[in-house]
Design a protein that fits this description.
By secondary structure, the protein is an alpha+beta fold. It is built from seven helices and 23 strands. About 25% of the residues lie in helices and about 35% in strands. The protein starts with a strand and ends with a strand.
């Protein structure tokens, strides 16, 4: 990874002009400045190569952040040469990480990269490149180092209404009220005669003191629904739409978890499945969404059916798509025939409701989900 800088190209052009002038004038005096310039190029090349080969870079083992954030952990850079080093650059696939003006012999510096990661993804430290164009800035010499660890950039999550759920089950902490009474919960409903096995802490002492025997508290039944997310991994072929889809997926799943729903997730490329219980912190969701890579041939009827077979039969199904096609319409029709609750999320300017059998369709952008006008 060696190339001339702008300054190097300029001086190389000057040397070429001097060479032409010396040939035209048949004067050997002009060869001296040409030799000096070429000597500077040689010194620059060997010095920069030595620095790039002997600079020791120690990144943090792993870093996790969201889109729009910068790293907070320092990188350690050591000049392992007996001479001064300078004009150092360290780049990652996401952009420039560090710019170091100079390091003394055997000096170690701990520096925090200022790079802001604007897109989700996994950036492996082994892909980082170390460059130097010391001392004259004429030739940039670089190399990759075998660095461990990675930077995982999660999709940015935003507030959005939760998706429609189905298959409601009794669960303490669920935010939906059932029609029956429960022995535990957060919403007091009434009292009943105590039975063997009732916990002592639920005894309603005020009612029990009226002489009708021990009375125990009852509570409104709390219910939790189930939502299964099936995500297309880039049928549209547009990486920006896929990133928007990942943000929408994460935002909807966290909204469902906050509502106390059980969440399932399947991505159509690798058919990987996640099951997340209600009120979880959801870090596994973000990690999975950060690692999604584009695949434009996954929106097929066979894959859609296989994904539906992986999730609970009681759950509603949320389709997060970057595009739609005939396979989607046929799949939705089959689900509707079996009475499944289905919602579809598409990029802005998506298909009309009529094309998908009248199921609810929502549009997502980079920071918002809304119903079509």
């Amino acid at each position: 990874m060696t190339r001339l800088t702008k300054t190097g190209w300029t001086l190389l052009g000057v040397a070429f002009v001097l060479y032409l002038a010396s040939m035209t004038s048949q004067s050997g005096l002009l060869l001296f400045p040409i030799g000096v310039l070429l000597g500077c190029f040689a010194v620059n090349f060997f010095s920069a190569r030595k620095i790039a080969s002997n600079l020791l870079v120690e990144p943090p083992e792993n870093a996790h952040l969201s889109e729009g954030q910068s790293l907070s952990q320092p990188w350690r850079i050591t000049n392992a040469t007996p001479t001064a080093a300078g004009f150092i650059r360290i780049n990652s696939p996401a952009g420039p990480l560090l710019r170091i003006g100079g390091l003394q012999p055997n000096e170690t510096a701990s520096l925090v990269p200022s790079l802001q990661f604007d897109r989700r993804g996994v950036f492996r430290n082994e892909e980082a490149q170390v460059f130097s164009f010391y001392p004259f800035g004429l030739i940039r010499v670089g190399r990759r180092q075998s660095l461990s660890g990675e930077v995982v950039v999660y999709p940015a999550i935003y507030e959005t209404p939760p998706p429609r759920a189905a298959g409601y089950d009794a669960m303490v902490g669920g935010k939906y009220k059932g029609g029956r009474r429960s022995n535990s919960g957060s919403q007091f409903s009434g009292v009943r005669p105590a039975e063997p096995g009732d916990p002592l802490k639920h005894i309603h002492w005020k009612s029990s003191s009226k002489g009708q025997g021990l009375m125990t508290k009852t509570f409104d039944e709390e219910l939790s629904g189930r939502v299964a997310f099936i995500m297309d991994c880039g049928q549209s072929g547009d990486p920006k739409i896929l990133d928007n889809c990942a943000r929408a997926a994460g935002s909807l799943m966290f909204a469902a978890l906050d509502e106390g729903h059980h969440v399932e997730w399947v991505e159509l490329a690798g058919m990987n499945r996640l099951i997340i219980p209600p009120f979880s912190d959801g870090h596994e969701i973000l990690d999975a969404l950060a690692r999604i890579e584009m695949r434009s041939d996954c929106l097929q009827l066979e894959r859609l059916r296989a994904a539906a077979d992986l999730v609970s039969r009681k759950s509603s199904i949320v389709l997060l798509l970057t595009e739609t096609n005939d396979a989607v319409a046929e799949f939705i029709g089959a689900l509707a025939a079996r009475g499944r609750r289905v919602s579809v999320y598409l990029p802005e300017n998506g298909v009309s409701i009529a094309e998908l059998g009248g199921v609810p369709i929502y549009n997502y952008s980079d920071k918002e989900i809304h119903s079509p006008a």
